[in-house]
Amino acid sequence: MSFKQRIGTVGLGLMGSSIATCILAAGHDVTALVKDESEAAPARGRILGFLQELHAEGLLKDPPETVVERIRITADVARLAGHDVVIESITEDVEAKKAVYAALETVLSPTAIIGSNTSAIPVSVLQAGLQYPGRLLGIHWAEPAHITRFMEVICGKDSALEYAETIVKLAEGWGKEPSLLRKDIRGFITNRIMYAMLREAFNLVENGYATVEDVDRSLRNDLGYWITFAGPFRFMDLTGIPAYLTVMRDLFPDLDNRQSAPEMMEKLVASGAKGVSNAQGFYSYTPESAEAWEKAFIDFSYDIRKLAEKYPRE
Fold first, then answer.
1. Closest C-alpha among 220, 224, 244 to residue 233
2. Domain assignment present for 99
3. Eight-class DSSP state of 262
4. Would you call 51 exposed, middle or buried from its count of C-beta atoms within 10 A (0-12, 13-18, 19+)?
5. For 236-254, b where at least 16 C-beta lie within 10 A, e where not — what string?
6. Whether residue 205 is found in the same domain as residue 284
7. I need a labelling partner for 202 at 20 to 30 A (CA). Which of 24, 72, 213, 233 fits?
8. What distances in angstroms separate CA 114 from CA 3, 9, 135, 156, 299, one per listed residue?
9. Mean pLDDT throughout 292-302?
């Protein structure tokens, strides 16, 4: 399979636009399927803005105005015929995603790979009912998709491993450092570990051990200092394995293992809070400070990528 072939995408929301940007910046042409042609102009503007960011950071050599011309946006699924890879990035809804796959299967060859950008839905669930379930994979991106090196490629119970290996190789050409999950599990790698951390973070706050600010401060200044350099297993190698076993034996029985969502979280969402997107969250924001935090996150994402690239991957 040529690694400069035209790639198909489905969905051009914020995440879909970021994914399309990543693929364009890697040198591919892109055909993007949207629900309605009216989405084309706003999406093209977002993508151009992302490309301009990459260019300003030295991560894109060609002029952004030239690169953005390589995306073709359409509401006609037939325009995806002949594509070897199509990546879906729509809402996290099983039936909506399956409707997309059913439409794709009317135009794609039986060996074309379909990737689903999902962070929570088991890939095996999405495969059910497909004509060719072996070609469907999970492709989990991180935000911002055009900046981060993260990617997880997930096999469902019916996925063909050779398709997954093709996507891993392709993703390396997109500037990613992909991880391959050979078996399907809900939440994959990072979400399972992150939500275990979040459960304990809520436990500490709700039971009065620390404030939201305290928890954030401790994690930023400990975990935040090493996690880009080394994952947890490498970090244990670097800092001495035996001590961790001692702590595990003592601490594991005491960790929170609740099965329900935290009451604090339920109340916050019920109040209408969405985070910086509507200036309501765990912290207090003005519209201006929320916008400043969003910009700071983008700036940090570029900075941390540059720092990470100075050190060995393996």
1. 244
2. yes
3. P
4. buried
5. eeeeeeeeeeeeeeeeeee
6. yes
7. 233
8. 16, 9, 6, 12, 32
9. 95
Q: Is residue 186 one of the residues assigned to a domain?
A: no
Average pLDDT over residues 109-138: 95
Check whether residue 259 and residue 166 sit in a common domain. Answer: no
Please give the Cα distance from 240 to 310 (Å, whole number): 24
Model pLDDT, residue 1: 45
Strand partners, 74: 33
Residues making up the chain, counted from first to last: 314
- Res 198 pLDDT > 90: yes
| 3-state SS assignment for residue 36 | coil
Q: Where are the beta strands (DSSP E) in the chain?
A: 7-10, 30-33, 71-74, 85-88, 113-116, 136-141, 151-155, 179-181
Model confidence band, residue 3 (pLDDT cutoffs 50, 70, 90): very low
Contact 156, 123 (CB under 8 A): yes
- C-alpha distance from residue 53 to each of 29, 43, 72, 74, 99 (Å): 19, 15, 21, 25, 34
Sequence-distant (6+) residues with CB within 8 A of 290 are 276, 277, 278, 279
Nearest to 14 by CA among 286, 276, 287: 276
* Domain of residue 72, CATH code: 3.40.50.720
Predicted local distance difference test score (pLDDT) of residue 122: 94
Q: What residues make up the domain containing 52?
A: 7-181
Instruction: Clarify whether residues 56 and 126 are in a common domain.
Output: yes
Asked if 204 contacts 178 with a C-beta cutoff of 8 angstroms, the reply is: no
DSSP code per residue over 272-304: T--BTTTTBSSSB--HHHHHHHHHHHHHHHHHH
In 128-162, which positions are buried (b, 16+ CB within 10 angstroms) versus exposed (e)? eebebbbbbbbbbbbebbbbbbbbbbbbbebbbee
State the helix-helix crossing angle for 241-251 and 232-239, rounded to 10 degrees.
120
Q: Calculate mean pLDDT across residues 31-56.
A: 97
Residues 26 and 153 in one domain: yes
**Terminal CA-to-CA distance of the chain, rounded, Å?**
26
Count of domains in the chain?
2
